[in-house]
Amino acid sequence: MPRERVWFDCDPGHDDAAAILLALANPDRFDIVGFSTVCGNALLVNTTRNLNHLLSYVDHVVAIHAGASHPLIVSADPQSGAHGISGMDGFHFENESCPVDGDGIVALKDACLNNEEPLTIFALGPLTNIALLIRTYPQVISHIKQVVIMGGAIYGGNMLACSEFNLYGDPHAAKIVFDTADQMPIVLAPLEVCKAGATPLNRFDAFKSEGKLNQMLDGLFTFYCRYAIDRHMDRTPIFDMLTVAYALDPSRFKWMEHPIDIITEGEHTRGMSVVLQQVSNAKNVRVLHDCDGQWVNDTFFDSMHRLNAMLH
Ligand code: BDR
Ligand code: CA
């Protein structure tokens, strides 16, 4: 199987980190071309620093690119509940060895255009950078293999009654992106598939074993799991990780294909993703709704075990 050229647009975020590590642990499958950051779980300065900490810690020292510092129209609304004040609490990182440049959208445009192989973009935060990319440089669209987005919900939400955090974070950007579904393939991993792939909390005990990576993962996920424990849940979704799991083996997922409309306003509906289930047309998005959760988790923990051994 040829290696897939991939780009991470992210707002780390514990689950963003998990997604990136899952790709790094599978170098035979993914050629990671670059990383851009966006304001989401925390302000841009924090998400960029968190990405730098993560990549430096695992000795993947590459240039990283900061993208949009605020959503297109609404104000930034970082949430410290799940990810802490830094946006990725739970482990004390020391090094920031990756050079940072300030133009994530230009870097992503170049990554699209500078190679004949089309690019897969994992979009793990609010869609501000992706909307700016396709609006500013529409010529990139034909160079995108697919955009695999974590966001939205078929029913309900986790931020408002009817909306999920990433699409709530920049609803106008989300609308632009889903309106482009007739020009580039979009795969959406909404809350439902993340719940289907949720991780039993006792599986995180694996990170209590020896090793440099385990030490970091134990710190990060002990913090992350507190959110579930406080709510008497015995498992937690590692939301963003599902996008990379999907790219590793789509046959482990179930989906439906329909257009998506985004409600940009409303006390209960800002960022709501309306899956138009009675419609099927050129704007269809591949909406994942179920997966083989056992496979997802076995794949994630096996991959972390391998990466931990590689980093010894
Ligand atoms: C999404 O919001 C963020 O908190 C996570 O990183 C994930 O991208 C889940 O709703
Ligand atoms: Ca995220």
Structure description:
- This protein is an alpha/beta fold and 312 residues long.
- It has one domain (4-310): Inosine-uridine Nucleoside N-ribohydrolase, Chain A.
- 35% of the residues lie in helices and 20% in strands.
- The chain is built from 10 helices and 13 strands.
- It has helices spanning 14-24, 44-57, 104-113, 128-136, 165-169, 171-178, 191-196, 212-230, 241-248, 293-310, and strands at 4-10, 30-37, 64-66, 100-101, 119-123, 144-150, 186-189, 199-200, 235-236, 253-258, 260-263, 272-275, 285-291.
- The strands form 3 sheets. It has a 9-stranded mixed sheet with strand order 4-3-2-1-5-6-7-13-10, with helices on both faces.
- Strand 2, helix 2 and strand 3 form a beta-alpha-beta unit.
- Bound molecules: beta-D-ribofuranose and calcium ion (CA).
- Residues 11, 13, 15-16, 40-41, 124-125, 240 line the site of calcium ion.
State the distance separating the first and last CA atoms: 28 Å
Following the backbone from N to C, one meets helices and strands in this order, namely EHEHEEHEHEHHEHEHEHEEEEH
Strand content: 15-25%
Structure summary, number of beta strands: 13
CATH topology: Inosine-uridine Nucleoside N-ribohydrolase, Chain A
Please compute the radius of gyration using only Cα atoms: 18 Å
* CATH architecture assignment name: Alpha-Beta Complex
The CATH superfamily is identified as Ribonucleoside hydrolase-like
* Tally of alpha and pi helices: 10
Shape: globular
Q: Which hetero compounds are present in the coordinates? A: beta-D-ribofuranose, calcium ion
Q: Class, according to the CATH hierarchy? A: Alpha Beta
Secondary structure: helix percent = 25-40%
Mean pLDDT rating: 97
Structural class: alpha/beta
Any idea how many domains? 1
Largest sheet: 9 strands, mixed
Low-pLDDT residue spans = none
In the sheet with the most strands, the strands line up as: 4-3-2-1-5-6-7-13-10
